[in-house]
Please model this.
Amino acid sequence: MNTSANNKNVKLAGALKEKKARDKEGLFVIEGPHLIEEALQAGFALKFLLFSKKASNKVVAAVEEMGFSTYLVDEKTMDSISDTKTNQGLIAVVPKLAFSFDDIKTSKDTMVLVCDGIQDPGNLGTMIRSCAAAGCGAVIISNDSVDPYNPKTIRSTGGSIFKLPVVCEADIKKTVAYLKAKNIKVLCADASGDESLFECDLSGKIAFVVGSESKGVKKEVLKNSDAVVKIPMQKNVESLNAAVAASVILFEGMRRRELKS
Model:
């Protein structure tokens, strides 16, 4: 089915590049075959798919086979609504994922990542991706962080946003209170920490809090945490960016769990 730039679906997909529209509609966009296939494999519904002639026929067929609406658009229209310089002819509109604290897995060795004030969309996406790779039970994103449904964030997750609960717009104080009520240890990553990540106790249920590069973890969170840990580094080296720091911490936590098992 051919559409034009005046079509309501095309206009909607273009508008969803902005947070205001995403919040209003409860929708976001994913681009390219990989992200769309990841969404389908994870069982997420698509509101509709826009595709151009250069799109993967395999992906279009899979979407249609699952009963979701598809619309053919010309290349110029696709370029106008895409958020990438070189698109792959596929844009899907997807309902936001509605997760809450109740969706957090709380098994005896659960790891959770709390993103405190992360502003860079690429960093946040990478942090979500690392969480999935390290087997985290959830990601909690504070309400002063960048929107996890930002197109760059979504791309940076590599599809991992569909693999685990991502709790958005969380109040950081309520988050810490909830975690403690569930007997989940709260460990903050900060250069001021007295304990080395490689020497501290990472057993049991644990939540790692990582702050932004510019401001770090909020003082009230540091004060109410169970421990503040630092990543050992060589002298005269600038601090790691938030995504790298989170990845180091998460994979150290995973390593300890594998050694124990």
